[in-house]
Design goal:
With about 400 residues, the chain is of the alpha+beta class. It folds into 2 domains: about 150 residues, Adenine-n6-DNA-methyltransferase TaqI, Chain A, domain 2, CATH 3.90.220; about 180 residues, Alpha-Beta Complex (Adenine-n6-DNA-methyltransferase TaqI, Chain A, domain 2). It contains 10 helices and 27 strands. A 5-stranded mixed β-sheet has the order 17-26-23-24-20. A 5-stranded mixed β-sheet has the order 18-22-25-19-21, with no helix packed on it. It is elongated.
Length: about 400
């Protein structure tokens, strides 16, 4: 790290009235339609998964008043995925945080984005790693977090570094928004055709016993097969993509994040590009999507392959639909630790299937969307790689700004 920039501990960079603290919302305190709160798993790669936030009652949230967000605070996951950081957006003003999340309220003369990017850099991650412990679960000690030394140039330089790195994140966010619109369009098309039964020509098609004339009622098991191609990690190249449940986003069919097989030890299930992966632990988390690469996934996921390529769009959109996830969640097995989806019950899900011509028309509408999602996903991968290569050079003062 550059010697020209003084290193100052986080505790000296924070506001006096709030400094560095952690949340107090505990598991089991959630209610429906209350005040949002952020858990450790909601913080990842500089972002907060706003759509996945749970809520507590307004009355309980007020008892935890000291951790109510004002917007702009730096949040850090302390447990589970320790060291993940993000800035609380203004839209979450009044929200709260769980006990596995740390809150860092920085002084006005410190650029919060700059500190976030430092903690995301290799040097910053190393600082956090040395403060991580725990025999069963990795935890960042709050007292030691306060001692993390941040190299601090002038505010102008901090802001310039933030601007450069934010330009990459803005492009990534723009692509994410485009992907969200594409996915929403695909969902609406599926609902229009297969739930509301407002498909092309529906005006002249009688409905008999809930099925349009010329259609057939089939089960999901008629349309696809579960893939059980298990393999040990040591039999694969170390850089083989690995999709664990932690990589699968909620309510998104785009599986655009993955690790590598060198990070895992137990046997995994192979999948190929285009196959559908469904997270079976706590299926109400709605983790289901299409693979954009060949790789392996967790044994806690179900891999599905359509029996015919023209069925791909229908199988994908059915398995990612709210109706299917709701039915699967109602039928799930109660495991020893957590409930799991059961493929034997999932494949019995009944749905109307159109004749071949109409089925192909639907698939021809869905596949271009999947291909666009794949293209945007790879674009974001490249943007993240470019940002992450630039980040340590900026933080070290190697590149003049």
């Amino acid at each position: 790290m550059s010697l020209k920039w003084p290193k100052i501990e986080l505790s000296e960079l924070t506001e006096k009235d709030r400094a560095i603290t952690y949340g107090v919302v505990k598991p089991g305190e959630e209610v429906d339609n209350g005040v949002a709160f952020i858990r450790g798993g909601d913080v990842s790669q500089g972002r907060i998964a706003i759509d996945a936030l749970r809520t507590i009652s307004p009355q309980l949230s007020q008892t935890y008043k000291r951790t109510l967000l004002r917007g702009g605070e730096l949040l850090i996951s302390l447990v589970g995925n320790p060291g993940e950081v993000a800035i609380a957006p203004s839209s979450l003003q009044g929200a709260n945080i769980a006990r596995q999340v740390g809150l860092i309220a920085l002084k006005p003369e410190v650029d919060t984005k700059y500190v976030m990017y430092f903690l995301m850099s290799p040097v910053g991650r190393a600082e956090l790693f040395t403060r991580t412990g725990g025999a069963v679960q990795q935890v960042i000690n709050l007292a030691e977090l306060k001692t993390v030394a941040v190299p601090l140039p002038s505010l102008a330089v901090q802001q310039r570094i933030s601007e450069i790195l934010s330009a990459y994140d803005d492009l990534i966010d723009n692509n994410r928004r485009r992907m969200a619109l594409l996915e929403d369009s695909a969902r609406q098309l599926y609902r229009e055709w297969f739930v509301r039964l407002r498909f092309p020509g529906h005006e002249h098609t009688p409905i008999v016993d809930g099925v349009p004339q010329g259609w057939e009622r089939k089960t999901l098991g008629d349309l696809c097969r579960e893939v059980r191609d298990m393999v040990l990690p040591e039999a694969l190249e170390p850089d083989t993509p690995y999709i664990g449940l932690e990589h699968i986003p909620r309510r998104s069919i785009s599986l655009n994040d993955w690790g590598t097989v060198e990070e895992v030890t137990s046997s995994k299930c192979r999948f190929k590009t285009g196959e559908i992966i469904f997270g079976k632990i706590r299926p109400y988390f709605h983790k289901v999507g299409v693979a954009f690469v060949d790789g392996v996934t967790s044994s806690d996921a179900i891999v599905v392959r359509p029996v015919d390529e023209t069925l791909h769009g229908l199988v994908l959109m059915t398995m990612s639909s709210d109706e299917f996830v709701a039915v699967t969640s109602q039928q799930m097995k109660e495991g020893s630790k957590m409930p799991r989806a059961d493929w034997k019950q999932m494949k019995a899900f009944s749905l109307p299937v159109p004749p071949p011509g109409l089925l192909k028309s639907f698939d021809d509408l869905i596949q271009p969307t999947v291909e666009q999602l794949r293209s945007l996903s790879f674009a974001n991968q490249k943007l993240r790689q470019a940002r992450d290569l630039l980040l340590p050079r900026l933080m070290s003062g190697e590149l003049a700004v």
